């Protein structure tokens, strides 16, 4: 096989202008730190309160009124999230995580200023929009197969006010969706985990891994693990029970599947289906792979069952802070800029029905924390991310906050397209995002986080940098190379206005004056198929 033929797609959001990012050199500590320190409990500020209680009120001898509810979205997760005394996080209102924090003394505060009325929810991102029937599960809807507010043409605009923060606030058989509405549930998704292959491969070994699909299977995620993270392998062919050409590396232009065919950091993911162009028919599927280096190899299958047209889903998120000069995990929770970027990320995903949570903050310190802060090489970066994420063993997606990567020329990068789901028995990985742009534009930072998470969940660039190649989805606008008006062999967002530049998965960001907050129904289809998303 001609190795030069192998496509080496780079899953990243490239820098718009290297000059706009500040370089940062990590400082060497006075003494060596442990390899990894996971610090999720910043030291509380000590205050001398004398004989008064922690709230500063004088002791009147009366028992204070107590606050104790579990309306916090992350209540009962084993971590106190209400921002009160002893809390690990402050992501919920005071007194609303009673199961984890205990009862809180009531605090009499002046009535808050009334919040402005939220904007109505009205988009046509539902895949069944404009079919004459309301499909968003809201009042008067005929069906509940789309996210609330995304079938505006058929349902009209929807009230944007939140009616719930957790499933506990909804009646039986209904769940609280990403926009805070109680909607009917079609049943939760489930994952069946199988190890298909486990053997010692030599260099240039060729092997087949097969799995069976039944009629109730929504999707299958295949994870290839080279136990030596420096080793690599690639996909040769994917065959269906009917011998339909899903993927062949020598006939990739004719293939129905669009894949990133080479391992990154010793891992590779394959998501079937990753386009509505084909579906999984019952029978036996075979994937042929080739090892480029000697290594023990494991191939796993995560078989997902659940609603075919889910109302929504949820994604736990862990932010990891390396030893860069911008902020650590505790500071990020108090940073207005970081929280603004997180809200951008949250809203992009809420618009297609994916709720983020719980959101965790962790630190990576010591030798590895410094190495990851300013990475020099994609392979080394992904190896380090794999080590931290696997040792931490947390659910959901791992997002690493780095300083900058001047030698790599990126704002972010995903270690896999798709990456490995965080499931027991699988080596985990994640994506890295540079903090260097945060102070300049929290909006661009939030879009970058959503972009790299999208790669990890299986989304390709809608348009690649030169405009000659595009993702396999029919409903994502393409920007052709003919839009390269300045002849620099790049199609910029400014050149691609009204041609897909507003999509979150466009190859690069606007330098100024443009938003990239759109995801299409077919992109939603791909993300809902990923084993990391719990759908309902």
TrEMBL record:
<feature type="region of interest" description="Disordered">
    <location>
        <begin position="465"/>
        <end position="498"/>
    </location>
</feature>
<keyword id="KW-0732">Signal</keyword>
<feature type="signal peptide">
    <location>
        <begin position="1"/>
        <end position="23"/>
    </location>
</feature>
<protein>
    <recommendedName>
        <fullName>Peptidase M43 pregnancy-associated plasma-A domain-containing protein</fullName>
    </recommendedName>
</protein>
<dbReference type="InterPro" id="IPR024079">
    <property type="entry name" value="MetalloPept_cat_dom_sf"/>
</dbReference>
<feature type="compositionally biased region" description="Acidic residues">
    <location>
        <begin position="38"/>
        <end position="53"/>
    </location>
</feature>
<feature type="region of interest" description="Disordered">
    <location>
        <begin position="32"/>
        <end position="63"/>
    </location>
</feature>
